[in-house]
Amino acid sequence: MTATVEASAVAARRGRPPQVFAVVLILFWLPLGVGGVQLLLLGGSPYYLVAAIVFILSAALLWRGERRGAQLYLGGLFGTLVWSLWEVGFDGWALMPRLLLPALLGLWLLMPWARRGLA
Amino acid sequence: MTPHARPSPHKHAGFRSAPVRGRGSHLPARISGLMLVAVVTVLLLATGSQGFAQPQQVNTAAAPPIDADWPAWGHSNAGTRYSALSQINASNVNQLKQAWTFRFDPPTLAPGSAAALQGTPLKIGETLYFCDSRNIVRALDAETGTLRWTFDPHVNLTGVAIAACRGVSYFRVTDGIGDCTERIIATTLDARLFAVDVRTGRPCPGFGHAGMVDLTEGVIQGRALPLYSQTSAPTVAGGKIVVGGLVLENQFVDEPSGVVRAFDAVTGKLAWAWDADRAADAIPNAAFHRGTPNAWAPMSADETLGLVYVPTGNTMPNHWGGYRSNGTERYASSVVELDLNTGQVRWSFQTTHHDLWDYDVSSQPTLVDLPRPGGALPVLIQLTKLGQVFVLDRRDGHPISPVSEKPVPEGAAPGDRVSPTQPFSIGMPQFDGPPLDEKMMWGLTPFDQLWCRIEYMKTRYDGLYTPPGLKPTIVYPGNAGGFNWGSASIDTDRNLMVVEWLRVPTRMQLIPRVEADRAGMKVWAPYDGQPIRSSPQMGTPYAVLIRPFASPLDVPCIAPPYGLIAAVDLTTGKLKWTKRLGTMEDSGPMGVRTGLPLTIGTPFQGGALVTHGGLVLIGATQERSFRAIDINTGEILWKDRLPTGAHATPMTYYSQKSGRQFIVVAVGGSTKLKNSNMGLLVAYALPNDARSAR
Predict the structure, then answer these.
(1) For B454, nearest residue in chain A (alpha carbons)
(2) What is the radius of gyration, based on Cα positions, of chain B?
(3) Pick from A39, A70, A109: which is nearest to B453 by CB?
(4) Torsion B336-B338-B344-B345 (CA) sign
(5) Are strands B651-655 and B660-666 parallel, antiparallel or unpaired?
(6) Alpha-carbon distances, residue A85 vs A28, A76, B153, B295, B442 (angstroms)
(7) B contact test, residue of A30, A40, A53, A91 with most B CBs within 10 A
């Protein structure tokens, strides 16, 4: 509660936290997290579950206007890049579904209004 | 032998080792800089693909003897799809222009039917002969594309699985005079064989009954369409016409006979018949055995050896084989050599034992003479849906390139068995790609990729020949191949073989009879207004569900490429080059055309023409284009965009009138590949200045 109040105060000075982005991020990763649990239970890759946790955490921090949210997003994106290259190497078509949307979403955080909203 | 990047075999994700930056006041700038690098890198990686090639100069050899005609479906009965013509060659093909086009009406499809214009014209003298998807035969002036005559056998397309005609054949009566000395021999989707005069298109009165032979006789009672039909050009050799037939798949035990018949090319009288259960001494018109493997694919023949080479299909139903006869077990999914005069089996080679996957032999056997120190060796090259290239001595069926029987997965459905081993051509490149694993699952987005990964983990896949069962299995290569009727194209001067192959998995599941009945799966009867053809496998304990293994966005569940083209040096048996075939321009998620000219390697139907000019000419892809490829490098030298897909094998000829070499391809789309149905022949030639400059 206190944090939210502080964040709002910060937002008033520096611009609004990227809350729309945070919501989009959660809507994006929540189904992937649920599917990730199913995949893990079937003996598949843990990536989707782990990535969903990281990106949803990032979304929570961004909602509060915390810069650490962007840092975590960047970390998640790098992790995804490393994981993708480890899985399929430099095969452009195979990298596309793994990287394209997370990278495009990341562009949002580069926008001046999104950066102004981060403490 | 992988045409594309092979994933590493490690198991756990490397996610945790990803660098997460520390905290500091100057971070926003650093974050955005890093983010920018990351984003740009990622976008570049994700959109990277092969670009288009520049034309390359190739020295053409001295002018070869002119190969002016195209007298048989695969150029000759050897099925090489090779022409010695070289006026159009690697150095001038970029100036190729449309010389003429010929338009006709595509078929009006009955419910449940699909169509694909798959015909390759013949060229005899100054005329082209061509069949469309309704078996209408047309003769066109080879120079101008002007219509000379039309013969319409009035085929009923109701319920026909795929309305297609791959070609017609030509026969000349020795010492004949008058009408029908030269004739076009063709078949129909409703199982008739006919002969018409080359000059008039009128039926030959002395052939069968007023020019027609009923091929349903002894095979099925009455016109029980569409269980039995003809789609490949008949094989004319040694004064005989040899025809197999297409039996509709997976309907019931004891489907119409897969009999192979030879008819006298002059009179249309039955000369001999062979089916897998036939006794060697059976009289020609003895009843044909039901439920025997069919032979729908194009055949080839060697008149010197007096042999016809028959690629056989499977015994129906495909996917549960508990009730198969000894004869069908021996001859299904094989290449069977029959004596042209008697129909006796000389030898046979089985490419899949106890076939439970629909791995029928669908490529035309290609006959070539390989140079060897002791003289030319007469071989037969047989491509299979499993992506195998078998090289056999065509005199006795002995493998020239080693064949190994390797163990394959076990676990047949109740009441059935699996063959413990299957044959692999270990001395030749294998066109099946690496085995699938979870990392190869794809999708356009993380969502459908994850869906495909989950489905993959739920499905049984133990590699090639995973047997069908009550739990869903992945069939890979799928039932379209590997290789299909596009067949091998062989440049017999350069000893290069060009092949096209698919990487499209399917999913299969056996359904117990009680559940199948409840779901209303029954024998296809289009006249009852049944909307969808199913695979009930009546008479066995299981129906079967066969679906593409595709994501909810309707893209394949495995990463591209889906269609590839490759060249193999037959002197060394080594792969010379391999390329993805086709861009994403005319395909995309949910059937939406993306317009993206990125080379992905699309699904395709059709084969390639190879020429002495150093060219590979091929349409085939979902991308609506026709292209010329350098046979030495695999680079695309020239491309022409088309109004729909060209799912037919092109052909070439020389026209005496203008002294021009033409290349002709049928452009008619394919229901299955979502390219709209049309009726169009396109002829290409060089402009005058380009020819004189060569």
Answers:
(1) A39
(2) 25
(3) A39
(4) negative
(5) antiparallel
(6) 22, 14, 58, 46, 15
(7) A91
- Identify which of A86, A90, A107 has the shortest CB distance to residue B39: A107
pLDDT exceeds 90 at position B13: no
- CB spacing of A97 vs B446 below 8 angstroms: yes
CB pair distance less than 8 Å for B42 and A72? no
> CA-CA distance, B319 to B624, in Å (whole number)?
34
Which of B67, B69, B302, B358 is catalytic? The answer is: B358
Structure tokens that stand for B369 in this block: 């003479």
Q: Where are the domains of chain A?
A: 19-114
| CB spacing of A97 vs B448 below 8 angstroms | yes
B431 token code pair: 């066109």
Backbone angles phi, psi at A35, to 5 degrees: -65, -35
Backbone angles phi, psi at B239, to 5 degrees: 75, 10
Residue B342's contacts (CB-CB under 8 Å, 6 or more residues apart) are B272
Cis-peptide, bond into residue A18, ω within 30° of zero: no
Residue of A nearest to B459 (CA): A42
- Which of A39, A88, A115 comes nearest B457 by C-beta? A39
Say what the pTM is. 0.90
Nearest CA in chain A to B30: A71
Q: pLDDT tens, B477-515?
A: 999 999 999 999 999 999 999 999 999 999 999 999 999
The verdict on whether B339 is a catalytic residue reads: no
Within 10 Å of residue A97's Cβ, how many Cβ atoms? Answer: 24
For the record, the structure tokens of B177 come out as 């005079």
* Residue B439 pLDDT class (50, 70, 90 cuts): very high
Neighbours of B28 (CB within 10 A): 17
Token duo for residue A102 = 């997370």
Torsion of CA B95, B98, B99, B101, to 10 degrees: 170
Q: What is the pLDDT of residue B226?
A: 74
Residues of B in contact with A78 (CB under 8 A): 18-20, 38
Instruction: Kindly compute the dihedral angle of the four CA atoms of residues B260, B129, B628, B480, in this order, to the nearest 10 degrees.
Output: -30
> Strand B625-630 vs strand B506-512: parallel, antiparallel, or unpaired?
unpaired
ipTM of this model?
A: 0.90
Find how far residue B229's CA is from the centre of its chain: 17
The reported pLDDT for the residue numbered B27 is 38
Contact check, Cβ <8 Å, A91/B559: yes
**Is B367 strand, coil or helix?**
strand
